[in-house]
Amino acid sequence: MSKKNSRAPREPSKIQPELSPARAEETPFEAVASICSVLVVGLFILTFIAQNFVIPSGSMEKTLLVGDHLVVDRITLAPPAKWMPLVHYREPRHNDIVVFIKPVAEPEPDAEGKPQYFFLVKRLIGVPGDHIHLRDGIVILNGVAQAQPHAQPTTSDNYQEFLDEFPSVPPYPQTGGATEGWAVDFPNHVVNGDLVVPPSMYFMMGDNRHNSLDSRFWGFVPRQNIVGRPLFNYWSYDTPESVYEQTGVAARIAWMGHVVLHFFGGTRWSRTFHLTR
């Protein structure tokens, strides 16, 4: 005699469909807050960490060309800050390429009467305590001739006594570009034919040695004027120096139009992301 299954048949399980969570609509306030946070982060990076600079003159050729657009590290050479203890800082060193504010006694006012500061890019030749002189264009640093393959060589064609035998010929205001203040202060820093770099000061020169207005013309750069060091070229466009000498709105618009039309042909692609050394 067979036994009947006393268990009741199981009902098929009811599968609950998964409900996707309702997508919350972003409020106008949240959208504005998001945009502002991005802008704040971007402004922080451009102000304190990295900044864009463009090369307007040929004083650093062939290392840097007119029309090179650089990303500049503003942290490494900055004075150490207690609020960023984990950041690597160091003092400027020989042969660093440095961005700095041109040292002037009184900045010239702009059209609105505000002080106008000029950013320059040069190579650091002397640090505090160094003894410097040039002989036939060769830098003699603390009695040792420096091998500087990046610098424009001195030849019989480009030789200039003031530039190539510095500081044997004192700078005068009449010496193309020399400032009056430097001409007066200059003798105080010459010892036995060497220029001695004072504390907290630096001596800068352009790589294009015979076409560079640098420390030979306007003196030392104070430590606080040093802004940073270029890292690399993010874009380089073949640009004549005269473009950066034109300040009118019409000239700028015309040049922007030129760049748009000739972007691919005028861009120096081989210098894109080129490291600055």
Automatic annotation (TrEMBL):
It is found in: Membrane. Residues 30-235 form the Peptidase S26 domain. It is a single-pass type II membrane protein. It holds the Pfam family Peptidase_S26. Keywords: Hydrolase, Membrane, Protease, Transmembrane, Transmembrane helix. Its main location: membrane. The chain crosses the membrane at residues 31-55. The keyword tRNA processing does not apply. Residues 1-22 are annotated as: Disordered. It catalyses: Cleavage of hydrophobic, N-terminal signal or leader sequences from secreted and periplasmic proteins. Its EC number is 3.4.21.89. One of its GO terms (biological process) is signal peptide processing. One of its GO terms (cellular component) is membrane. It comes from the Bacteria. The active site is at S59, K122. One of its GO terms (molecular function) is signal peptidase activity. The keyword Transcription does not apply. Gene3D superfamilies: Umud Fragment, subunit A. PANTHER family: CHLOROPLAST PROCESSING PEPTIDASE, SIGNAL PEPTIDASE I. This is Signal peptidase I. It comes from Candidatus Sulfuritelmatomonas gaucii.
